[in-house]
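Why does residue order matter? Because the sequence determines the fold. Keep that principle in mind as you read this record.
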Amino acid sequence: MTIQQLEYLVALDTHRQFVLAAEKCHVTQPTLSMQLQKLEEELGVLLFDRTNKGVQPTVIGAKVVQQARQVLREMQQLREVVQLEKGELVGELRLGIIPTLAPYLVPLFLVELVEQHPQLRVQVEELQSAQILPRLKDHTLDIGLLVTPLDDRQLREITVLEEPFLGYISANHALYQQATIEPQDMGAPGLWLLQQGHCFRHQVLNICAPAPVDTTRPFTYESGSIETLKELVRHNHGYTLVPELSVLQELDNPMVKRFAVPEPVREISLVVHQGFVRLPLLASLRDIIVGKVPERLRAGKASQKIRWK
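Structure:
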């Protein structure tokens, strides 16, 4: 049994196709197949069922894959411990970030991060929270940038920002005339929401009790994009709630309304597995992000945190 065989095993479990797994491992498909066959022969068990629809781990295969992932993770941690002792920040950084943060935060930190650490290979994926959490636990992501708290003992949270929710209100809506808004105002008709699965949607619903759906309106629409919601409002349709990072360049826009004090905010954190050892890298990423946003958004200044679960 070799480390290389374990890497092939995990790749096949991840991609469930021999050709794609081989491509990700930078080997030919026959090479990967032969090495996995040797591993099965050594262990004396069938690890994968091969079908026309792809491959699936057998019952014993799933257990072997789980253990292989742990072995590979511990091997990686060994390398990282040595690199830290040598003062190096090198290798791959796999970061998952939620869609309501990605357009506004990634452009602020990505270039500076790779400039500060030129030996680091950064891979960023835009994922929902429900996708990020299991991948942090199985070590297919290194860092998550998402809304907290999570209340999960397997994960460590490093709070970075406390970002206010703001109203984004069309000029023909009754709320447009108000200098500030209150949570109880959010019961007014015309509220646009993100689609199911976004933690931002759950937080908006935790802030307010929206009016029942207007069945007389000839359409309904739930978006996966904050920017799409803003465009709907700009074209004189209702109102929505947005994170402050999405309107930093238009805070003087009369369509943007702050909540009365205490403002509701979402807590944004860097999240890692409890076994994550590259703490200087975590600190560096946090410092870059904090240095790129207005001081009022920095953690520790808010009292009205809205949970997403």
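Residues 7 and 72 are 7 Å apart (CA to CA).
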